[in-house]
Amino acid sequence: QKEVEQNSGPLSVPEGAIASLNCTYSDRGSQSFFWYRQYSGKSPELIMFIYSNGDKEDGRFTAQLNKASQYVSLLIRDSQPSDSATYLCAVNGGTYKYIFGTGTRLKVLA
Amino acid sequence: GAVVSQHPSWVICKSGTSVKIECRSLDFQATTMFWYRQFPKQSLMLMATSNEGSKATYEQGVEKDKFLINHASLTLSTLTVTSAHPEDSSFYICSASPGLADSYEQYFGPGTRLTVT
Which pLDDT tens digit goes with each residue over B47-58? Predict the structure, then answer.
């Protein structure tokens, strides 16, 4: 059974701080990793994807991938109250079908 | 870029009737489209994967005769919930993938909230 695990949270951080969201996966053959943000009552929005070990930065977001340890993380710098949402980690093994984590709820406190 | 639309955004129907939901990729051709269902405070549940011009692949436990999926073109997939019942009330979300080489991103539509009375 291929699994993707996330801490459900809530993860509370003060405004302006760095929020660190983590995700572990069980399938060593996984090739592509995605972070989605989902606001309550809305559909997921793609934030970033990463394929290679290391860091990938896009604005205030940094995705980090460590395939040897089977984890992927998302860092949000200068967190804003508008970043408060559920963050979903998704993994696939080189096909279009994802395995989703259950999501981490982030609360950024003003 | 990578915009996916869904219609309707919400629908209320009576028990026993059928409801059709459309999913369109607006600015790219979608080789593959997906249909998900999400209950309150739960994660996304994949219902089926559809490829243009072929039959959809349903996940275990999803009734193919109840949830009819048609992917008639590279920009349009439809989900028809037949003989809907109150337990089918949920948030239905489609996603589409451009299908570029080594690129497996899925872009989600805004979702359709179905309420069956």
Answer: 999 988 888 999
Nearest to B107 among A46, A90, A92 (CB): A46
Q: Which of A79, A81, A83 is closest to A37 using CA atoms?
A: A83
Is 70 exceeded by the pLDDT of residue B102?
no
A10 touches chain B (CB under 8 A): no
User: What's the CA gap between A54 and A44, in Å, rounded?
Assistant: 24
Query: How far is B108 from A83, CA to CA, in rounded Å?
Result: 19
The residue behind tokens 């989600």 is B108
Q: Who among B91, B104, B109 is closest to A92 (CB)?
A: B104
C-alpha–C-alpha distance, residues B38 and A65, integer Å: 27
Provide the mean pLDDT of chain A. 94
Q: Do B32 and A51 touch (CB under 8 A)?
A: no
**What whole-number distance in Å separates Cα of residue B92 and Cα of residue B74?**
20
pLDDT digits (tens, 9 = 90+) for A61-98: 999 999 999 999 999 999 999 999 999 999 987 777 88
Min Cα distance A7 → chain B (Å) is 13
> The tokens 């243009």 sit on which residue?
B52
Between CA B73 and CA A57 the distance in angstroms is 35
